[in-house]
Amino acid sequence: MGAILRLIGKWLHAGVLEAGELTHPDKGTPQGGVVSPMVSNIFLHQVLDDWFVKDVQPRMKGRCFVIRFADDFIIGCELEADARRVMAVLPKRFNRFSLTIHPEKTVLIEFKRPPSRDQSAGGKGSFDFLGFTHYWAKTRRGYWVIKRKTVRKRLRRFMKEIWTWCRENRHEPLQEQYRTLGAKLRGHYQYYGIRGNFKMLEAVFEHTERAWRYWLSRRSHKGHLNWQKFVDSLRHKLPLPKPRIIHSI
Exposure of 55 by Cβ count < 10 A (0-12 exposed, 13-18 middle, 19+ buried)? Predict the structure, then answer.
């Protein structure tokens, strides 16, 4: 235990290097830092998990649950009155440990299955969790189910990063570009490749092909690469990994 505490202390005091400048924040952990999930689990296990099971659930009139990953969590309540009670006491619980909850991301949402006669799930709410938008939609047989798709903000950010990478590395050897783009796409599919999200994966794949062709065409003033030439010369010889569902959940 002592070794873990010393390691955490080194992480917290190591500083953050941004744009070549080293800073030492006086509180919190770096955004995206490897220590963040560990510290979150250590703190929130007592602050949230144990407290919810021992103190909150016995006082609820309906069923309720908590799902947490690092510092992101969802609390589901069967009854609206229970949800409002939890929402009122949650900030006080966190303040006891000098922690705060995000004032904009922490919201109360009515998320329940619409009546079967409704053709639209309008007004029934949707929420973002771990990079996915959860929403109600109908199956081909007409049943309401919860579906998930990539959060629009995450999708736009990944596409922008692909565009920027293709622009900055357009003069690199084709084989190196191909390997890197393939690795980026496979990594994206590994996380976002869940059932019901195939259209978003297709959008990422098509955008990557367009970005790659666009910036390869600008390697020199004589190197214009139209779409047909791109298909004939690169698409068949260096095919990018196509979208596929990895997780059937």
Answer: exposed
